[in-house]
Write a structure and sequence with these properties.
The chain has 118 residues and is α+β, with helices and mostly antiparallel strands. It has one domain: 2,3-Dihydroxybiphenyl 1,2-Dioxygenase, domain 1, CATH 3.10.180. Helix content is 19%, strand content 43%. Strands 2-3-4-1-5-8-7-6 form an eight-stranded mixed sheet, covered by helices on one side. A hairpin with a 5-residue loop joins strand 6 and strand 7. The protein starts with 5 loop residues before the first strand and ends with a strand.
Length: 118
């Protein structure tokens, strides 16, 4: 095992077909307005958890929710999970503000996300 500490799941992204309707539903469910509200992404932060709504699954083509584990060293964690049997789906890349994201596919076809905040 590497020394990159796993900080747990703090982010779950949901692909949505109708952003306005999804924003209303998740707002009602969570009891708060979104903290990020744009045409390509709506995000809610509640109790240390971030819930994101991605219209049409975004450029990554999400077809189901993806949980993102927050890690200290994304490259080390990617190497570790790939060595353990996962397949790289999306290599680490910056999505703004120094935040790196990547995804892998587990042996059963589930997409797992990793996030490193710099």
């Amino acid at each position: 095992m590497t020394s990159s500490v796993n900080h747990g799941i703090k982010t779950v992204l949901h692909p949505v077909s109708n952003l306005a309707t999804a924003k209303s539903v998740y707002g009602a469910l969570l009891g708060i307005p979104p903290q990020t509200d744009g045409p390509y992404y709506v995000g809610f932060d509640v109790a240390g958890q971030h819930i994101g709504l991605v219209p049409g699954g975004g450029p990554q083509g999400m077809s189901s929710p993806v949980a993102y584990w927050h890690v200290q060293d994304i490259e080390a964690k990617l190497a570790e999970v790939i060595a353990a049997g996962a397949t790289l789906k999306e290599s680490a890349h910056d999505v703004g503000g120094g935040r790196l994201v990547a995804t892998v596919i587990d042996p059963d076809g589930n997409v797992l996300g990793l996030i490193e905040d710099r």
